[in-house]
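Bug #77: duplicate submission created two jobs. Keeping one. Sequence:
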Amino acid sequence: MGLPSLFVVLFLAAWMLGAVSSQARCADAARVGARLAARGEPDTAVSTMADRAAPPHAQVRIRRQADLVIVEVSARIGTAGVGRLVPDLVVTARAVASTELASDPSGPRAP
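Kept job's structure:
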């Protein structure tokens, strides 16, 4: 009775570590995307770079509001091969950055 229980506990612990790892990757991807979007990069470049940092099959959403950029990354933690043993889980992270002002190429102005 002890050995199957130990197996279940170890399996669930490994699943939890995978979920936490995916959450951290989503947070990193959202921060990368928000930083790039705040610098004025096009949405396609922002999505591409955020996808590279995100877990597989993640969704990236970019919203712009006034002088803010909001990037949200979500990923479904799959249950491939384990069926009903673990619940299906979606992890999400959001990053907000204020847009940077375009710099004047002529340099600073005198008062």
